[in-house]
Amino acid sequence: MKDSLLSIENLTCGYHQQAVVKSLSLTLAAGEIACLLGPSGCGKTTTLRAIAGLEPVTGGSIRIQGKLVSSDSLQLPPEQRGLGMVFQEHALFPHLTVADNVAFGLRKLSADEKRRRVSECLGRVRLQGMEQRYPHELSGGQQQRVALARALAPRPALLLLDEPFASLDLDLRRQLARELGDILREENVTALMVTHDQEEAFALADRVGVMQSGQLEQWDTPYNIYHAPANRFVAEFAGYGAFLRGEVTDQHSVRTSLGELTGRHQDNLAPGTTVDVLLRPEDIVADETATLALPVTRRQFTGASILYHLRVSASETLLCQTDSHTNVLEGDTLHVRLGTKHLVSFAINNE
Ligand SMILES: Nc1ncnc2c1ncn2[C@@H]1O[C@H](COP(=O)(O)OP(=O)(O)OP(=O)(O)O)[C@@H](O)[C@H]1O
C-alpha cells in the first residue's frame, strides 16, 4: 500500500529452525499508533525484534517507508532503518546525564540544534530541569520518560516500544500510557507497541493486533476487536464476556434459554445452526422492572462499577456490569434484561 509506513507481508521468523512468528501480515499508516496484544510467548517481542532488524527473517518481507529492510536474503542493520526503540528495561547510559542520554542519537546536529531538541524532548516528557541528573538519581517512571525522549529525539520514522512501562506500578503505568498517546501524536510519530494490558492498548491505539501462537488473529480498530472479534479466541482475549448457547432462527435472531436475542449477525449463519453468542457485560442491563432474575454467584466491586457473575445454568454464567450503587449481594438475584445491539455468534461444531 502506498501510504503504509510499515508494511509486513507473510513474515516468518523464529529461533533454531523453529518458526515463532508465522506468516504475519500487517500495515501501519503514517501517524498511526498500534498495539500488539496476546498471551505470553505468542511472538510479540519476536515480531518487534524482526522489525527492528535484531532477528533474521526466514520468510516474507518487512518494508519501512516503502523500503525493503528485511527478507530471507536481506537484513538491513537496525541503525539504517530510521527507528526509535524503547524497551522494558530502561537501558539508559548510566554514566551519561539525562541531557547527554537524550542527545545520544543527535550527533549530526550542531551544538545549538542539539540543545534545542534535547530541551524540546524533555519538555514533551515533562522532565524540564532534570538535564544534569544521572539515571540513578531518577525514579523508574522518570527513567522511562528519558528513554522515550531519547528514542524520540532523532525524529524516527517508526517508534517500537516493548512493554515500556511493565516494570512500573499500575497507576503510574496507566498515567504514562495516557501521556504517551499525547506525546506520540504531538510528535506525529508512527508507533508499534507490545503490551500485556488490554485496557492500555484500547485506550492508546488506533489499531490493535491480537496474536496467538505466532499468528495474527485480527488487526483492527479497538472497537472492532471488542465488538466484532474475528474468532472466539479474540472474543475471549479482548475483554470480559461470556457465551450463551443458542440456535439461529433467522438473519437477525438467535433463540436462547433466556429468550430471543436480536441484532445483526456478523456472519451468514444458516437457520438451525447451533451457536455460542458472545455477551459482553454491557449487553446485560440491570433493570429492576425486568422479569428475568438471575442468581448472583460472584460480585466484583471495583469502586466505580460492579461486575456481577450471574448463573444461567450449570454450565452458563453471564456477566453484568453496573454502576456501584446497585448493591446486590452474592446469593441474591439481580433483575436484568438483554440489551444486545448486534450479535456476535460462533457456530458450534456438533461432532
Ligand atoms: N532467544 C531465543 N531463543 C530461543 N527461543 C526464544 C528466544 N526468544 C524467544 N523465544 C521463544 O519464542 C517464543 C516467542 O517469544 P516472544 O518473546 O516473542 O513472546 P512474547 O509474545 O513477546 O511473550 P511475552 O509476552 O511473555 O514477552 C517463546 O516460545 C519463546 O520461548
Automatic annotation (TrEMBL):
Signal peptide: none annotated. One of its GO terms (cellular component) is ATP-binding cassette (ABC) transporter complex. One of its GO terms (molecular function) is ATP binding. Residues 6-238 form the ABC transporter domain. SMART domains: AAA. The keyword ATP-binding applies. Pfam families: ABC_tran (PF00005), TOBE_2 (PF08402). GO terms for biological process: quaternary ammonium group transport. Keywords: ATP-binding, Nucleotide-binding, Transport. SUPFAM superfamilies: MOP-like, P-loop containing nucleoside triphosphate hydrolases. InterPro entries: AAA+_ATPase (IPR003593), ABC_SmlMolc_Importer (IPR050093), ABC_transporter-like_ATP-bd (IPR003439), ABC_transporter-like_CS (IPR017871), Mo/tungstate-bd_C_term_dom (IPR008995), P-loop_NTPase (IPR027417), Transp-assoc_OB_typ2 (IPR013611). It comes from the Bacteria. PANTHER family: SPERMIDINE/PUTRESCINE IMPORT ATP-BINDING PROTEIN POTA (PTHR42781), SPERMIDINE_PUTRESCINE IMPORT ATP-BINDING PROTEIN POTA (PTHR42781:SF4). This is ATP-binding cassette domain-containing protein. It comes from Alcanivorax sediminis.
